[in-house]
Amino acid sequence: MSSPARGARAESFPHAAPAALANGRLRTNLRAATTSIRARRTGAVAEVGDWEQLREAGAAIKDSALWRLDEALVELEQGVVRAGGVVHWARDAAEANEVVTALVVREGVDEVVKVKSLATDEIRLNEALETVGVTPIETDLAELIVQLAGERPSHLLVPALHKNRTEIRDLFRERLDLPGLTDDPAELAEAARLHLRAAFLRARVAISGANFAVAETGTVCVVESEGNGRMCTTLPEVLITVMGIEKVIPEWRDLGVLLQLLPRSSTGERMNPYTSLWTGVRDGDGPRAFHLVLLDAGRTRVLADRVGRDALRCIRCSACVNVCPVYRQTGGHAYHTPYAGPIGAILAPQLEGERGAVGSLPFASSLCGACFDVCPVKIDIPSILIHERAKAVRRERAGMEGLSLRRLARVFSSRARYERAQRLVRRLQRPVVRDGWVRRFPPGPLAAWGRSRDLPAVPDETFREWWERRARP
Amino acid sequence: MIDRVGLFVTCLADTLFPEVGKATVTVLERLGLEVVFPAEQTCCGQMHLNSGYPDEARALARRFVEIFEPFDAVVSPSASCVALVREHYPRLLAGDDRGVPSRTWELSQLLVERLGVADVGSGFEGTVTYHPTCHSLRHLRVGDAPLQLLRGVSGLELVELPEAEECCGFGGTFAVKNADVSAAMLDEKLGNVLATGADSVCACDASCLMHMGGGLRRRGAAVRPLHLAEILAS
Asked: Is residue A398 part of a domain?
């Protein structure tokens, strides 16, 4: 029997990464996709003369809602209710799933169509729906592929990044019962289109997430590329939106800033193809009932952390993911959370209360800073990573590592101890050194280094010894 | 005008790469500066802060500030250590940093930005490719200061590194905690370095050079890792 701690260890980033690193196709796809998305983003951002001011404005808008989140959410609720919608407050994933499944069951349907949504991935809504006998149908093409394969998305924006079209053909042949299908992209898209069209026409209930919700007007906003989201938000009779409470923004005009930042940062487009905005319900136009589920699930706890709270500004563009050199090697699965990449490494441990596998995520970064540079709402991800590392060390007491690093700090705290340590290392290393290089690595961190890199030995004269010798007449 | 600088050589260069420290002294003295090496110095605390030990890092930061307070300018041949001092000391020391962070300079920044020197009168025969380390590029924003200095070196042929701005995978304890991912990042970096056909790869951080150099040696590649100071001192 494996303890929960051991399970968490098996799923931790360093333990999960080798499988991804060994997957040649995944890495080829990742390299190609991140290279092209990065180039598109760079081009789209370069077109905007006041991009830096836009980033400032984006950060300020998100902060102004977060700093009075209690008021903003009540204002949003009033707006939605005024326009004929219903608002539900969910403390955690379980409450949100209860609300949604109860609403779906009340409609007496056995399937729902879904707009791509990270919040519903986070709370594992699809599993909750299946347990009450309701089949959720993902309508974003890539999400559909991942769902049919029984997998989890590998990327915020390109969920099926890890699959190529031969695999997709085989999947569609089997799951959509199309034995004669080829791997021609147009044919694959048509197969998905026909499958989804039937689902849209049958569907009586749709479930979405939200990119933004305007407190001032009670308006919810979803941006997407394919138009399948638009089908979900307009065709069915009942629309249920699950939204993290940090998605609220104060005013309608704020969309003018955020809808510039998001598509350019995300897909590298000037404007995304579909932006759906709706306020409550309207007779004879769209759903007859609208439910908004406001999800906390750890967000108020994040808000209480003076450093970590900036992560709540995130607008889920995935620019940080695409630019991350760590993500570029492993893809998203090794993160074991829907929020992969740099933003996931700071958000998931905070949202999930730092339990389990996500506890290793703040360490899954070389702190290269590329994420901060591209973030459209200026989240200082490297600083938050360091902050989260300190929290992890305090929590776990960090065993041997803590002991060695604290001892090392003591060595560094005195010149005499430091110089003694230099001389000691030079003496101790003798048996394992040849020609100025370490040739055998003791177990532990040095062995981890030595698996793929050589290490120079401490030379016969340190800099300070040279300096002293030089100063002597 | 600055005529005297305090040298923070870094624990890494002091202990493992003394040539980097010596080269830094050579370059600065060639420009007529008096170089002072306060022997009390040890480590800036970067590894502790980045690994999640802010209290230990704070004690080392306090020490650093006390040792270097007497200097109008402090110079170091490490972009990552200077980035720590500049970016994190003010918050870590809650404002009690005695102005030291703003007087602490990475070598290329001191030369080009502070002293306005792009030609330090050095000569180097060989082809060199330059890897902008993450801390020099994105944290300190040294811009093209190192490249300006390299272009001023007579006899040196500079070749552009493809995907230059990508991290080499070092990242301090990241290199051992996530050794497999770090090695994969290093693979990509070294592939690009080798593709340039350069004899040497140059950077402003001994730590990243230790990483790239360790990978190059493991592969049996003849490319030499050289700190900017070592080229400028030649």
From this structure: no
